[in-house]
Amino acid sequence: MASAMSLEPHDFYACQNVCEVDVCFSLELTLECVRSYIFPTPMEWLFICLHLVLFTVGVLGNFLVCFVVVRSKHMQTVTNLFIMNLAVADFIVLVLCSPPTVLQSVTETWYMGEVMCKVVVFFQNTVIGVSVLTLSAIAVERYFAICRPLQPRITQRKVTVTVLVIWLISAAMGSPNMTNIVVTYFKNAELNQYLATCQSGLDYQMAEVYLMFIVIAFYLVPMVIIGIFYLIISHHLWHVRVPGTTIRGEYFTLRLFQHTKMLIAIVFLADSITNLLKVC
């Protein structure tokens, strides 16, 4: 009786038409093995459908924001230009990062190669920075517009420079991923195959340091800045009475503040949806 034939782990398709005396590998068995592992399960189909809905809503919503602001001159206010920057950042991460991330989550392997691996992770981290820094810039702009109305207004040129600086800082924060993120291979016990994954190549301690730096720079510091400026704005609107203002003027100011709060809430909701797509 001949001994069982040994197959290389990576040569999975070699087992399709190989047969010895006591061992046969059929095409049907091979396809069933691949299908049972890679083909989405019912729960994974639900996961894909959820991402598809969020992807469609996010892409259309962010595109419409950019379209309206670009086409309508009266919509090109300072705040709306910052919001358009948020929409551009979210649109990029939805189109570029969401599909390959979902594919890896479902199939448990990375198909896009090392270059795309670095690009996807780089933009994921860069867009996080762009989002939080833009929200911080909106808070600062609202402070000067409401609490310092006699100061020179922020011009569109200054907004353009601010947006450029925001992208440069965020890209610098995410640039370590261009060298540290690698595609690594691991052997899957079920398939007897080597699968790929896109992950950080840093050791545990360095990865912890980098993560802590990102959390402080992109979450804690912007959160403090946003909180302080909106607390000052709230105090100004509720406790400071400008001489000569009318009840109608005060009502208009309060309505403006309410609209601003609603706008920030909508922006945070959109970013939360985008971050959900990144994490998942």
From TrEMBL:
PROSITE patterns: G_PROTEIN_RECEP_F1_1, G_PROTEIN_RECEP_F1_2. GO terms for molecular function: neuropeptide Y receptor activity. Coiled coil: none annotated. One of its GO terms (cellular component) is plasma membrane. It is found in: Membrane. Keywords: G-protein coupled receptor, Membrane, Receptor, Transducer, Transmembrane, Transmembrane helix. Its main location: membrane. The chain crosses the membrane at residues 45-70, 82-102, 122-140, 161-186, 209-233. Pfam families: 7tm_1 (PF00001). It is a multi-pass membrane protein. Gene3D superfamilies: Rhodopsin 7-helix transmembrane proteins (1.20.1070.10). Residues 61-280 form the G-protein coupled receptors family 1 profile domain. Belongs to the G-protein coupled receptor 1 family. PANTHER family: LEUCOKININ RECEPTOR-RELATED (PTHR45695), OPSIN RH2 (PTHR45695:SF15). This is G-protein coupled receptors family 1 profile domain-containing protein. It comes from Candidula unifasciata. The lineage of its organism: Eukaryota, Metazoa, Spiralia, Lophotrochozoa, Mollusca.
